[in-house]
Amino acid sequence: MSTGLVLGKFLPPHKGHEFLINYAKERSDKLYIIIDCVSDNVIPAKIRASWMKKICPMASVLTLQKILPQYPHEADDFWEQWQEELQKILPEKIDFVFASETYGFKLAEILGAKFEMVDLERKTVEISASKIRKNPFKYWDFISDTARPFFVKKVCIFGPESTGKSTLTEKLAEHFNTAYVEEFARQVIEARGGNINYDDMTTIAKGHNDAVSKGLLQADKLLFVDTDAITSKIWSLKLFGKYPKILDDIIEKADYDLYLLLDTDVPWVDDIVRYFPENRKEFFETCEAELKKYNKNYKIIRGDFDKRFEKAVETVEENFYAW
Q1: Whole-Å CA distances, 107 to 17, 21, 102, 219
Q2: CB-neighbour burial class of residue 140 (10 A; exposed 0-12, middle 13-18, buried 19+)
Q3: Distances 6 to 52, 100, 107, 304 between C-alpha atoms, Å
Q4: Predicted confidence (pLDDT) at residue 230 exceeds the cutoff of 60
């Protein structure tokens, strides 16, 4: 029974890593993947470990428990530190070390293993994690499927009633060939025949949040979302004078990259889920105040529906495609 080792930061995992791991698992009866616990934790080690478990479920995925120097010139006892920490977490002797970099020679030596060089010049898969971190969209196809949702940019279509949010959300998703999330409140309100109670606000916020999580799995670079938990908070205060405190937690954790705030300069269209045609401007001002309060990145979208779409596309491209 041979044992193999692949060590990496996996910041993020990409097709080059997958090529290396596939090579390693074909040549090992048992494979260990070790996650480097780096100090510049762009992506938490826990998340990276979960990705690697999905990418290679047959491997034993371990995480270093100590931040170690990354280059020999950083510490006189560089290799001694690495040897000590690796031996702490490895449950058995390693026979083969697999890597695409020359450090593998010394790593194998300190572990009493044989080094297997894999695609040193990166000709088979020409990519690096640093390139991906710098510009995820440009190198999207190289990112491992399981890691892509982490890099999806979420765009919330936000604002008062009857300003074209739902239509714009769908049109943007179609234009950018990606997924979108419908307003969950509409489903609840329609199911109740236009009525809503205070407890529904929690149902709406949780349901919408779950729908966004599922949408990320289907998205291609961008996910367009019709409203968010801030909207639920505004509506709850307006209808009931209070809001469920769980909304604070959802709002805090929601990491939308851009809000498109729609102004009220389009005609009112009546609908079962719409309540206050006379207060749209006031509602707009409340929406903007909340976005400022939470320090959100937002852009006001005005004009007729065609101009709104054009401006929205332009804004998205400026924010996420200006490389």
Answers
A1: 18, 17, 9, 39
A2: middle
A3: 11, 10, 11, 56
A4: yes
Helix (H, G, I), strand (E, B) or coil at 157: strand
Structure tokens given for 222: 């961008």
Residue 270, pLDDT > 70, answer no
8-state DSSP, 165: H
Alpha helix (H) residue ranges in the chain: 15-26, 45-55, 78-89, 103-110, 129-134, 148-151, 165-175, 184-191, 198-218, 229-240, 246-253, 280-293, 305-320
* Angstrom distance (rounded) from CA 76 to CA 168: 59
Residue with tokens 């349901």: 207
% helix / strand / coil in the chain, to the nearest 5?
50, 15, 35
256 close to 296: Cβ distance less than 8 angstroms: yes
Question: The pTM is what?
Answer: 0.89
Strand partners, 180: 224
Q: What are phi and psi of 42, to 5 degrees?
A: -60, -40
Q: Rounded CA gap, 179 and 85, in Å?
A: 43
Q: What is the pLDDT of residues 193-220, one digit of tens each?
A: 777 889 999 999 999 999 999 999 999 9
What is the share, in percent, of the chain residues with pLDDT greater than 70?
96
Comparing CA positions, the residue from 92, 99, 80, 227 lying closest to residue 157 is 227
Of 215, 223, 227, nearest to 262 by C-alpha is 227
Residues in Cβ contact with 323 at an 8 Å cutoff, skipping those fewer than 6 apart:
135, 137, 138
Q: What is the 3-state secondary structure (H, E, C) of 10-37?
A: CCCCEHHHHHHHHHHHHCCCEEEEEECC
State pLDDT tens for residues 6-37: 999 999 999 999 999 999 999 999 999 999 98
